[in-house]
Amino acid sequence: MISFLDFYTPANLNFEAVSSVVFYFTIYSLFGWLLENSYSYVTRRQFFKPNFFHGPFKPMYGFAPLILVYLIGPETNWGIVLLLCFFIPTLIEYISGALLQKFFQRQWWDYSNMPMQIHGHICLPFSLCWILLSFSCLKWVHPSIVSLYGIAQMFWTWIWPAIILYFIAELALSIRRHSTRALDKTESPNPIQ
What we know:
Layout: H1 15-44, H2 59-71, H3 78-104, E1 117-118, E2 122-123, H4 124-187
Antiparallel strand pairs: 1-2
Helix pairs in contact: 1-2, 1-4, 2-3, 3-4
Organism: Neobacillus driksii
Protein name: ABC transporter permease
Transmembrane segments: 17-35, 56-72, 78-100, 121-142, 154-175
């Protein structure tokens, strides 16, 4: 049913496996950025929506497919697949939202006006959307991305360490940028977001 990511057991994680994980994480983080900004354009006529990272990546969209592909094998029961497609992205979205709010006193998304929401970080309607998106990703998108990796692997072997350095730099700069804004908000009576 689902093309399992060519992961090796964590004890046997090697250079090639790390390279493929970074590739999939990068592609899915970029897809997440495109998806969120496209949704923003359709709903608000504004393509660029505020992002924690400066560049075109949404890491929570990179983590969710990787975890799902790691947990779901070809023999996994459909019911378990659907439950994981519901819980993994929802859990990642909640943890991401809670951590961002705790450390930077800012909510990048707010589902407070949606039904069955928790702290504005997650809500049932979007969690149900995660099932469809995650299942589609596992069933149709990921096999294509695996094929793309096979084509790009020789080139990717040379650049993936630079991509890791980019993500580390992006994370450090984003933490610094948003920490400064969080400090400014606590010191100023009228903070500007």
